[in-house]
Specification:
Blueprint (H helix, E strand, L loop, with lengths): L2 E5 L2 E3 L5 E8 L7 E7 L6 E6 L7 E2 L7 E6 L4 E6 L8 E8 L14 E2 L3 E5 L2
Parallel strand pairs: 2-11
Antiparallel strand pairs: 1-3, 3-8, 4-5, 4-9, 5-6, 7-8, 9-10, 9-11
Length: 125
Amino acid sequence: QLQLVESGGGLVQPGGSLRLSCAGSGVTLDYYCIGWFRQAPGKEREGVSWISRTGGSPNYGDSVKGRFTMSRDHAKNTVYLQMNALKPEDTGVYYCAADPRSRYCTSSPALYDYWGQGTQVTVSS
């Protein structure tokens, strides 16, 4: 069974950076669409970045484009989210997730069957 574990969250000042990691175990992440999502209190879960099984360029939500970078280390079976120029509105619980069956990878949380436990990111002065 695929298991996902996020790490790297924490408290950071506005304008700072964090790198989140999503470590997969049990099954190679190459077989799944992989997405990063976040959820702030009182807000719906939104797609941050997602990447296809083919290893193409990641896609990004409009609110993070130009500031966040998604990458993967195939040898380590790990996906990363580098977050730069962080803003208070980036605060939330960040999740990685895997979609085992969609032909096209999307930002819809409903299509992802496997989820990590989440890691808290707080951007505040």
